[in-house]
Amino acid sequence: MAKRIGAGTIRLETPVKIAAAAAVGSRKEKEGPLGPEFDQTIEDSSLGEKSWEKAETKMQQLAVAIALQKAQITPDRVDVLLGGDLLNQCIATAYAARELARPFLGLYGACSTMAESLTLAALLVESGAARNALAVTSSHFCSSERQFRFPLNYGGVRTPTAQHTATAAGAALVAPFGKISIREVCIGRVVDLGVTDPNNMGAAMAPAAWDTLCRFFADTGTAPADYDKIITGDLAQVGSDLLVRLAAGEGCDLRPRYTDCGLMLYDRESQKVDAGASGCGCSAAVMCAHFFPAMQRGEYRNVLFLATGALMSPTACQQGESIPGVAHLLHLTAEG
Amino acid sequence: MAKRIGAGTIRLETPVKIAAAAAVGSRKEKEGPLGPEFDQTIEDSSLGEKSWEKAETKMQQLAVAIALQKAQITPDRVDVLLGGDLLNQCIATAYAARELARPFLGLYGACSTMAESLTLAALLVESGAARNALAVTSSHFCSSERQFRFPLNYGGVRTPTAQHTATAAGAALVAPFGKISIREVCIGRVVDLGVTDPNNMGAAMAPAAWDTLCRFFADTGTAPADYDKIITGDLAQVGSDLLVRLAAGEGCDLRPRYTDCGLMLYDRESQKVDAGASGCGCSAAVMCAHFFPAMQRGEYRNVLFLATGALMSPTACQQGESIPGVAHLLHLTAEG
After folding, report:
1. A267 to chain B, closest Cα gap in Å
2. What are the C-alpha distances in Å from B236 to residues A301, B198, B244?
3. Which residues of B touch A84 (CB under 8 A)?
4. What was the ipTM of the complex prediction?
5. Of all residues in chain A, what percent carry a pLDDT higher than 70?
6. Residue A91 and residue B312: Cβ atoms within 8 Å?
């Protein structure tokens, strides 16, 4: 049984593990600091497909195939696939799920998707509803630019607060076996402090990250010093700074433990990514390429992973709406 | 604990109930055969908002408020809100979730969303992860036409296979108390038989409905005659006929028990809705306005509800992709 503790944290009392994970990226991710840790990077970001959307589907399929291979299970043993992406109607994932032909639950959590899919995967495995649950997500710089901003050929000028959408996919298999345990999860609330600039997603999402983190600390009676690492998804420089300030304002010093996947994926100076990386694929790839393997090697024992999502659309922004954020959290431990 | 039976059906061994449900519609839904059963219908489909998208959010908020009122619980007792809609980035739901300010899991299942959200709500309540889980979804004719087809003012001609998107929202509270039990759930697989006509969603979705239904019958060793009603979401005339034919082809006669929400919401003759109704709000409203109350009154004791979704986008269709479908199923019983 899952056990509710405090106001909103869910403790998993049956062992639920991350059995295997895989990350796929493109040339830009290969050239970044984590490049060598990716399972596969593809030079041509079209992946030989006729559209960016189809390329994104293919990245998911690759990540899924590698994760299953690492876990040494065949696709027919996946009881449920949980995933989503940033594209309208989440088509990258829907077409990847068509290929896998396993029970599928489509999610929309914007850039929080990896944390959302891992959370639900963990809860379904814990309850016995699934033995193996596969969490997947992706983003693609070119499909995202076309859909959310401008066609690439337009050559739109970017603001310094803008983030570069990762061309990457991550997949993780949640099962009763593996070296990384999912101990607790905390589902995020939608938080909106009124940011209306779609080129400043970090600022829009930081309050949601703090809302979830703060509730989790209160529910569990823990503090940042209790964890080896506290990892956010893609707040990048502007959002990370804001999260640290929000926490400091309530007497909580995150800095000694805190890092953000959006600040790790690229070299901001040489790779010209403005405030950092973003997209569902950012935290999915950084967790699957770097942190999960590092935990499996025992480099980190006790980690909080919380990915944030900006739940807006270009239509909502054009209608003057502000940008709501959400952040889902997982507490992960690795055996000694 | 949830118990897996057969290849993919999940039996809930702890009691999980639908405690309350509410349906909201517009004038067209009011004028349909189920009009008097709606909790609220609003004459002006803008609901006094400045955009169709905002009107859709407001419909969800109304449905949520009425469902909570009926269940006699305050919003702060909702442990998790699960929902989604058809709009790009599911904004109708995201902005409704912002208002409720409770933990939120965004879903994308196209028109299968009510079945997907009820399925996950049931599994989370069953596992103890949530005491009260609220499932919500909506669709709006005007926001859907603008996004998926043509702006209304364009006056595009509709094909006879086209369906009319319901302007409706439904919300249901899943809890340990109530008169309707959720006994089993079966998560759908993505099925695509190659239909490419976005004006014929029924045909695209029917194979997914049969895939799920067929797996459920095999897993549980049951047949259509074991149920009072077998209710699909929004296959409408074309898709329903196809589902009945697909089942007949495998020696299964659905007809005596079968109905489709897309054929019930409107009077097809007088209301000019071509093949019938569609949209996430269609099955959500028909279940919440008609079937759940009828089950609570004891009129149906043993029901299968499966909602289908077409997991495409205009972009995918323009790129020549076919339309994949998915269908999630719930087995519901009412006490005598």
Report:
1. 29
2. 54, 14, 12
3. 108
4. 0.97
5. 100
6. yes
Tell me which residue in B50, B103, B106 faces A109 most closely, judged by beta carbons.
B106
| Digit-coded pLDDT (tens) for A76-121 | 999 999 999 999 999 999 999 999 999 999 999 999 999 999 999 9
Q: Which of B105, B128, B316 comes nearest A116 by C-beta?
A: B105
Name the residue among B287, B331, B329 with its Cα closest to residue B309: B329
Q: Count how many residues are written for chain B.
A: 336
A242-270 tens-digit pLDDT = 999 999 999 999 999 999 999 999 999 99
Cβ of A94 and B127 within 8 Å?
no
Q: Can you tell me the distance from the alpha carbon of B80 to that of B57, in angstroms, rounded to the nearest whole number?
A: 18
Among the partner residues A108, A110, A189, nearest to B84 by beta-carbon distance: A108
User: DSSP assignment of B115-153, as one string?
Assistant: HHHHHHHHHHHHHTS-SSEEEEEEE-HHHHHHHHS--GG
- Considering the entire predicted model, what is its pTM? 0.97
pLDDT beneath 70: ranges in chain B: 336
What is the three-class DSSP state of B315? Answer: helix
Q: Tell me if B98 and A123 make a contact (CB, 8 A cut-off).
A: no
Site of tokens 């499932």: B135
- Rounded to the nearest angstrom, the gap between the alpha carbon of residue B32 and the centroid of all alpha carbons in its chain is 18
